[in-house]
Amino acid sequence: MALEKATLTFYKVDSCGLYKWGDHTPFLGDTVDILDDLLSWSLGKGVAQTATYQVPKGNDLLPSLLLDIKKAGNNYLLTLWNQTPTQQGSVPSVDPNSSVGSASVTMNGTKKGTIPGFATYFWFVPSEGVFACVQFDHSTTGHKVMEKYVKSFIDPFSKHVVFNIKADGTFESKGYAGHLSDKHLNLHPKFSSSLFRKPGNTDHILDNHAMIEQVVRKTNLEMKNTADKQLLQRMMDAFRRGINISSKLPASGINVNYQMPIDLTRQELEALIKDWEKSNSNSKVQWDDYGFKIKGEMNKIYWLSGSIARDGFDLDVSRQNAEVIDSDSLIHELNKKSQYILRLIK
Q1: String of b and e for 101-114 (b: at least 16 CB within 10 Å)?
Q2: Per-residue CA distances from 94 to 54, 162, 212, 213, 220 (Å)
């Protein structure tokens, strides 16, 4: 066991179960029911047998498999394995110091019969109607992949759906458990969630949109990104710094903080906030934010990040290997510190 820094981002469960078209309340199932069902379904299965969906060509979603699911008390920990693309059994990687247009790519071999990828973790607290994406090493939460995985499990694999497997391997639904005689019952699976937004900064910003006099922008400009590099050069020229940024700069990028006057309608401001939340929902990066100065509130900046239920915690956990956190140690540590952690959503 060792202390490791984890970033937790909370989401509200908006829907979970089988729904009649147009209804907002599930006809069959709920979060506890579906997670209990997933736990039972996984028993005795090999990891390769746990795919619930196929990714069509042209889709950015990663395939995923169930690495583990645990229940402790009334909470659950779902661990997914996100598959990374391979080329003839090898994982390609690019040399970041090579030139655009002639980049050097290395093919890294993988052990035959294994599936390259990375683990993502989701702590469900049904009593609060929320779950948290738990991030350790990776910059992505895998949130959208998890949504797709659970939704695709609900139909056809949950206990509520009765189906046949046709000769071509596809599933043919026969109806729903307990309702097989109702030939007109047509349900569809739903699992959706949204960032848990704490009341406070965002509401105050929107309510006072007409009084906003300045916006403060914090962002990270990546020096390997040509557009970001050009933007930074223009900033240096504007400030008459006389700095040529073609000189060596950290590949991790440059943190930039600037402010400007702004005049937005409420609708434009809502769109900005929605876009920022979408781009930051899966990020651990703290230096990507909008702050708003409101007339009459001296030296006060309202940051959008102040409304997201996200924070870092030291968790005493063990690892199965360099990539995977032991799920028993993780769920028990999260449950042990739940009273402290759940203050984020109170």
Answers
A1: eeeeeeeeeeeeee
A2: 27, 47, 44, 44, 22
The tokens describing 286, both together, are: 């703290």
Top mean pLDDT of 19-28, 81-90, 230-239 is at: 19-28
Question: Three-state SS for 4?
Answer: strand
Lookup result for tokens 């049904």: 126
Strands 289-294 and 212-221: antiparallel
Task: List, in order, residues 6 or more apart from 192 with CB less than 8 Å away.
Answer: 13, 14, 15, 147, 151
β-bridge mates for residue 315, sequence order:
4
What size, in residues, is the chain?
Answer: 346
Q: Looking up tokens 């042990």, which residue turns up?
A: 336
The residues with which 79 forms a beta bridge, in sequence order, are: 68, 121
Calculate the dihedral angle through the C-alpha atoms of 266, 272, 274, 278, rounding to the nearest 10 degrees: 180
pLDDT tens digits along 141-171: 999 999 999 999 999 999 999 988 777 877 7
> What average pLDDT score do residues 237-241 get?
46
Residue with tokens 């790519």: 105
* Whole-number Å distance between alpha carbons of 153 and 225: 39
Max Cα distance, the chain (Å): 78
Counting residues of the chain whose pLDDT is more than 90, the rounded percentage is: 48
Of the candidates 138, 134, 26, the one whose C-alpha atom is nearest the C-alpha of residue 76 is 134
Q: 337: pLDDT confidence band, cut at 50, 70 and 90?
A: very high
- Measured at the CA of 122, the angle between CA 121 and CA 128, to 5 degrees, comes to 160
**Average pLDDT of the chain?**
86
